[in-house]
Design brief:
There is one protein chain. It is built from 3 helices and 8 strands. Strand 5 and strand 6 form a beta hairpin. 12% of the residues lie in helices and 44% in strands. It is mainly beta. The two termini are 22 Å apart. It holds the Pfam family Imm50. InterPro entries: Imm50 (IPR028957). This is Immunity 50 family protein.
Length: 138
Amino acid sequence: MSADWTQLLASTEYLGELYEGAPPPTDACDLFYVHIDERENSVTLGFDTRSFPVNPPPEWRGQGKDLNAFEFHLLFTGVTGLRVTGWGASEARAIDLTAHDGGHFDVALGSSEASGITFRAAGARLTRTRVYLASNNL
């Protein structure tokens, strides 16, 4: 697990309040969405986890269901050095995020130089969250 991943998501601008400062690790999050927008120089990554927030807002608790899944999207902006060398299930399981002083990020999806997606981003923000009831038949 990347310490930078945990530090980023534990902040209040991201998932800190929902998880009381202890967000799910990368191995508890499934990367299910990658959108590369060359017009805006951005990359959006969507993650799904069964690690439900410990401090959900009242409107989530009031839906009358036993919600058990959480989805969130991170938008990386000012993307440079984008490199796509392949994509598949194994690449989606390996997530490495490095935060640098000044708010810059290096992101690597995949575990080898031969296949994956890498880029540098000038900034990142949480753009979407969603809770739902998921089947336990995984």
